[in-house]
């Protein structure tokens, strides 16, 4: 099943410039369509993603996201689930919860955090300025996030995209919601998150041939730069990440 989610009636309004309420409505639409499709037991995995900018692979100018439901997870996610499961069996803890604990202690790659969410640039990022947004509390599935947290998540997503928009001159990007399979929504081994991948570089022959990615920027440096961007935007007002940056 493939669906296109129209985000706004405005033809040229990027998510970075939407209001918090508009972004919250988009996130709620994601959840409602996820819930509707997971009722079909033949659909085991639901991918929600947004392509922004021509180099991201988009073919439509109007702001939109997409949802694809399949009977099996893609190879990339199958590997992520297997690694997370192996870690849980070895240590009895969620890999991503441990990752969050360490990142919050070191703070080298943290861009900002709010009451319920953390924005970070992951260790060994595949591309410059790759950004992950995590709920602090463990939920395997995006669908398990309490409805009361959606307004805060909308603020975090919008402000994170605004930092990229202002700091990197409105780059193309891919945004993905990395979530569990529909059958494993309450499993302890996985931790859903949002992954934003700016398209600042081109994947070339070495990456395709080896599966090893060359990143020209350290995540510690890019996170520091994004903090500075967030600080400059917060001075102008109307920006919420300044509260816990």
Summarize the structure.
The protein has helices at 20-38, 75-91, 95-106, 150-167, 205-210, 219-234, and strands at residues 2-6, 45-52, 64-70, 110-113, 117-120, 131-135, 173-178, 193-198. With 245 residues, the protein is an alpha+beta fold.
List keywords for this structure.
single chain, 245 residues, alpha+beta, HIT family, subunit A, eight-stranded antiparallel beta sheet, 36% helix
SSE layout and pairing:
Blueprint: E1 2-6, H1 20-38, E2 45-52, E3 64-70, H2 75-91, H3 95-106, E4 110-113, E5 117-120, E6 131-135, H4 150-167, E7 173-178, E8 193-198, H5 205-210, H6 219-234
Helix pairs in contact: 1-4, 4-6
What share of the residues does DSSP label as strand, in percent? Answer: 15-25%
Q: How many structural domains can be distinguished in the coordinates?
A: 1
Q: What is the 3D form? A: globular
Radius of gyration: 17 Å
Number of strands: 8
Discrete helix count: 6
* CATH homologous superfamily designation: HIT-like
Percentage of helical residues?
25-40%
Averaged pLDDT, please? 93
Contiguous low-pLDDT stretches (5 residues minimum) are: none
Reading the helices and strands in chain order gives EHEEHHEEEHEEHH
| Main sheet: strands, sense, barrel | 8 strands, antiparallel
CATH level 3 topology: HIT family, subunit A
